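Good morning,

Attaching, inline, the backbone tokens for the sequence recovery test we're adding to the shared suite. The designed sequence is right after.
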């Protein structure tokens, strides 16, 4: 307005009101033409202003419209008509972070059957700028509805139409400063949802294991600490178990056409394979070759892989399907049962209505089968099973020992002689074969009802003189004391008598022994050291897998807990029954503490992310202290196997960081 009025002093000599009138008429695209600029500077200014307005004004109007719609959504309702005609799920969170939202949306919509579902987010806070930008993307704006409200208010649950929802997900943020308080909020939300909509399936994420028993009514409960420590422990036994689980449960690519998805997946696998072959680690090479495998399911009667094994035992079907087709049968589900049985063992007989869960490069429906020639079959008949010792290693994997899922009904004990007979190997004396013959149907005369617990490891049937002299004669049973209610009972190696609390302290002598460091103990096996801030109840789940009954006694590694803060008495009560478990108060920052706890004799060093550093002003800096500590260990003890927990996956590229190493830089690109 001022520019037109100023420049037209040399032309029409417009008043300020005339200039205002001209601008409104021009930019509203009415253009009466009764007032027009007369000189070229004024005309140039009008041209520039119109060009700017064409760019700026639509953006501003779009933002205004979006804000108005979001305000309507936050304070509005999810339509009852839509709830009854279209399927939706409700996501309840205390605060919505962009990482949590994208992980949930990408995995939820990865399944083809969920493409038509709506996601209604119920959150008590306003969405931040990052979430707002993501929800403006057309792919999400048409599927995701954000409602501001609390799950504890029936009015807000009614707005989200919780009673008509297909499912409700209650999630917690890992970066909470007070994780116990976050669990308390999650528990209240779960109670409120169950009270309002009793028939709505409930999926709950809890952080601390001691709070799990409050929400046993939920259909599915995932306890982060319980799962985390069990995964860290299994990484010590089998390298990169967490990598295997991550590859299985995460979707590799987003929504693409089938051929494009196959091309991208193949390219990703080839890249990972090519990079992993340069690694000196055998497990990295294997993971590179098998990284594209995923879990699929199919009805047994419709399957080419498994149909011929109807009436056979699960172990027989798993063994021979792997040997014939290269697929790994890992579990089954009965038609009338919603629970999946993982590796149910030789007593389970396959039925035509069973749903089989298997690991393969692709689902059976997308596989092509070639008929084998007769001479090939004759050749294979010559390679038939001739005893357990002649089996290749990859076939042995398919017939590993059964995993006890539910041990509450295994109180009875069979006679000591009721075990599965093994084939005699001539007159040789030595290590017995890794597996027994795989039977089509379990032999009731040789398999007793409770042989799962009476089965001995291959080196434990008769203890040697060295074991007796070394004090390796442990008992097997359930730990008599659990640090929290709701822990699953697990059959473990235990001591006949609990160790006095003073003897659990590694770095201080007592009246029972005078050792003050790990070297003085003279352990035969290498140590497993866990560096943690506190001895939380979840740490109990780290010890249990490493002391499980199926672990050979000779292979039990001493466990040393390096804690910043002293453990409380009830935690010591829980661990004092386990053999070779010690603790020490110290810090991973202190080199003397590391040497005293035996870092030079360690097979694995497990570094747990500290709760006090999980939240930072800059989100991705939450792992800074952990990464620097791990890098220090890597520099000082290069042969040490380090297993680390990180809050943000983007920080993986800084583990064992080498600025000029081609292999490390290639891995960094893959991790990005």
């Amino acid at each position: 307005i001022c520019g037109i009025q100023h420049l037209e002093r040399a032309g029409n000599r417009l008043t300020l009101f005339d200039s205002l009138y001209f601008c409104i008429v021009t930019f509203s695209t009415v253009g009466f033409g009764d007032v027009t600029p007369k000189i070229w500077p004024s005309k140039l200014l009008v041209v520039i202003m119109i060009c700017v307005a064409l760019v700026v004004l639509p953006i501003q109007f779009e933002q205004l419209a979006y804000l108005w719609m979001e305000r309507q959504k936050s304070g509005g309702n999810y339509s009852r008509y839509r709830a009854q005609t279209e399927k939706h799920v409700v996501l309840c969170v205390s605060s919505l972070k962009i990482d949590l939202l994208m992980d949930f949306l990408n995995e939820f919509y990865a399944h083809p059957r969920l493409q038509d579902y709506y996601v209604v987010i119920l959150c008590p806070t306003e969405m931040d700028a990052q979430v707002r930008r993501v929800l403006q993307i057309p792919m999400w704006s048409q599927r995701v509805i954000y409602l501001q409200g609390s799950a504890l208010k029936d009015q807000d649950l009614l707005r989200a139409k919780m009673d008509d929802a297909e499912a409700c997900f209650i999630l917690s943020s890992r970066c909470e400063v007070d994780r116990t308080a976050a669990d308390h909020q999650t528990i209240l939300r779960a109670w409120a949802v169950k009270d309002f909509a009793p028939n709505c399936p409930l999926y709950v994420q809890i952080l601390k294991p001691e709070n799990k028993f409050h929400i046993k009514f939920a259909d599915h409960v995932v306890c982060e600490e319980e799962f985390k420590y069990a995964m860290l422990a299994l990484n010590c036994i089998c390298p990169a178990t967490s990598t295997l689980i991550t590859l299985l449960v995460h979707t590799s690519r987003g929504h693409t056409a089938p051929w494009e998805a196959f091309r991208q997946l193949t390219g990703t696998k080839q890249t990972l394979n090519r990079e992993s072959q340069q690694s000196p680690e055998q497990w990295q090479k294997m993971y590179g070759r098998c990284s594209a495998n995923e879990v699929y399911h199919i009805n047994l009667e419709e399957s080419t892989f498994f149909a011929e094994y109807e009436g056979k035992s699960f172990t027989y079907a798993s063994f021979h399907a792997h040997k014939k087709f290269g697929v790994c049968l890992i579990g089954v589900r009965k038609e009338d049962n919603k629970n999946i049985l993982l590796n149910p063992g030789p007593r389970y007989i396959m039925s035509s209505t069973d749903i089989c869960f298997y690991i393969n490069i692709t689902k059976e429906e997308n596989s092509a089968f070639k008929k084998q020639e007769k001479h090939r079959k004759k050749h294979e008949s010559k390679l038939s099973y001739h005893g357990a010792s002649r089996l290749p290693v990859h076939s042995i994997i398919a017939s590993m020992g059964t995993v006890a899922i539910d041990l509450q009904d295994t109180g009875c004990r069979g006679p000591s002689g009721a075990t599965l007979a093994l084939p005699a190997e001539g007159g040789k004396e030595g290590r017995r074969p890794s597996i027994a013959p795989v039977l089509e149907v379990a032999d009731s005369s040789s398999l007793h009802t409770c042989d799962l617990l009476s089965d001995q490891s291959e080196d434990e049937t008769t203890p040697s003189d060295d074991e007796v002299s070394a004090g390796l004669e442990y008992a097997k049973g359930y730990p008599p004391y659990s640090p929290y209610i709701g822990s699953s009972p697990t059959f473990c190696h235990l001591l006949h008598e609990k160790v006095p609390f003073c003897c659990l302290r590694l770095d201080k002598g007592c009246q029972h022994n005078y050792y003050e460091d790990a070297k003085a103990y003279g352990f035969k096996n290498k140590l497993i050291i866990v560096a943690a801030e506190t001895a939380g109840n979840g740490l109990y789940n780290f010890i249990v897998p490493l002391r499980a009954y199926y672990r050979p006694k000779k292979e039990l590694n001493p466990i040393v807990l390096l804690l910043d803060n002293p453990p409380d008495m009830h935690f010591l009560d829980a661990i004092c029954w386990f053999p070779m478990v010690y603790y020490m108060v110290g810090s991973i920052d202190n080199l003397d503490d590391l040497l005293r706890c035996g870092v030079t004799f360690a097979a694995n060093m497990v570094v747990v992310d500290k709760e006090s550093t999980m939240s930072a002003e800059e989100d991705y800096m939450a792992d800074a202290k952990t990464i620097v500590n791990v890098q220090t260990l890597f520099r000082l003890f290069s042969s040490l196997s380090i297993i680390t927990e990180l809050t943000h996956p983007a920080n993986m590229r800084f583990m064992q960081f080498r600025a000029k190493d081609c292999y490390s830089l290639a891995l960094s690109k893959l991790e990005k």
